[in-house]
Design brief:
Strand order of the largest sheet: 3-2-1-5-8
Number of domains: 2
Strand content: 15-25%
Largest sheet: 5 strands, mixed
Shape: elongated
């Protein structure tokens, strides 16, 4: 009877929609040139590994079946083959070169500075929130875990986090960026090492106290793109999400104007209105 109860409880957990995260088998292509580079490299190496696996395991399985002892097959007896050694040395070298060239090209593209950014954003990590300063717009604010996620995660009553939309992945003030514009990031930290990571952008950068890291992006389409701190930065490391809201240049300019007006009036920064 206990076994039946356990099985029923386990089945209920498995079919519960609140217990399932979004299920995907592959990386997402992202929304920037850099993310496309990473995705293309991933797919190239994946298929190389698939081909190697099929050939190696296919040869092993065929050998075990076609040349088994029960069929009376006698094993070949040899101790050295120069031809085989040359082949199994040259082929891996060619495979590595085939993978290394696009990887090196992609890394160089990601690290190459751009001359004229349309927007410069300084990102500062704190325990456990982010500060964003638009250096050429004179706008800045702190982005923290949204109140609803923060309330639920502190409860001891076992309230279902699945009832909270984007639980632990939402913030009170998202980073608003224009699409189609070259954005330069300057990343640092105020206390310990953090790491600013949004998968849709195709890269992540450490935010280190006393040091400024640089990164670039050019978002291709409007939308909400979420990430997290990827460095174990302390007790509340898991409650330090990142949310980017990519909007059209016109919407971005209107938002900046509104923030400047609010700052002059001494009001708190306002998040951009959700158009979805």
């Amino acid at each position: 009877m206990k076994a039946l109860k356990f099985t029923g409880a386990l089945g209920a957990m498995l079919v519960s929609t609140g217990a399932w995260a979004e299920y995907k088998l592959n990386m997402t292509p992202g929304v920037t040139e850099f993310s496309h580079i990473a995705y293309g490299l991933h797919m190239r190496i994946l298929w190389i590994c698939v081909v190697i696996g099929v050939l190696v395991f296919g040869a092993m399985i065929y050998s075990m079946i076609a040349h088994r002892k029960s069929k009376g097959v006698e094993p070949a007896r040899f101790s050295h083959s120069t031809t085989a050694e040359i082949i199994w040395t040259i082929i891996p070298i060619l495979i590595l070169l085939f993978m290394a060239y696009p990887a090196t090209k992609g890394l160089i593209a990601m690290e190459a500075p751009h001359d004229k950014p349309d927007l410069i954003v300084k990102v500062t990590g704190f325990q456990w929130r982010w500060r964003y300063d638009y250096l050429n717009e004179d706008v800045g604010f702190i982005s923290s875990l949204d109140q609803e996620s923060n309330r639920v995660r502190q409860l001891k009553s076992g309230e279902n986090p699945g009832q909270v939309k984007d639980y632990l992945l939402n913030v009170d003030h998202p980073l608003v960026l224009p699409v189609g514009k070259q954005v330069k990031f300057l990343l640092t930290a105020d206390d310990v090492i953090h790491s600013w990571w949004v998968p849709a952008l195709g890269w992540k950068r450490d935010a280190i106290p006393g040091f400024v890291n640089e990164a670039w992006t050019k978002i291709e389409k409007p939308g909400i793109y979420r990430g997290q701190c990827a460095e174990l930065c302390g007790r509340d490391h898991g409650f330090m999400p990142i949310v980017i809201k990519a909007v059209t240049p016109e919407e971005f300019e209107a938002w900046v104007a509104e923030q400047k007006k609010s700052a002059m009036a001494g009001q708190e920064i306002q998040p951009i209105a959700d158009q979805s």
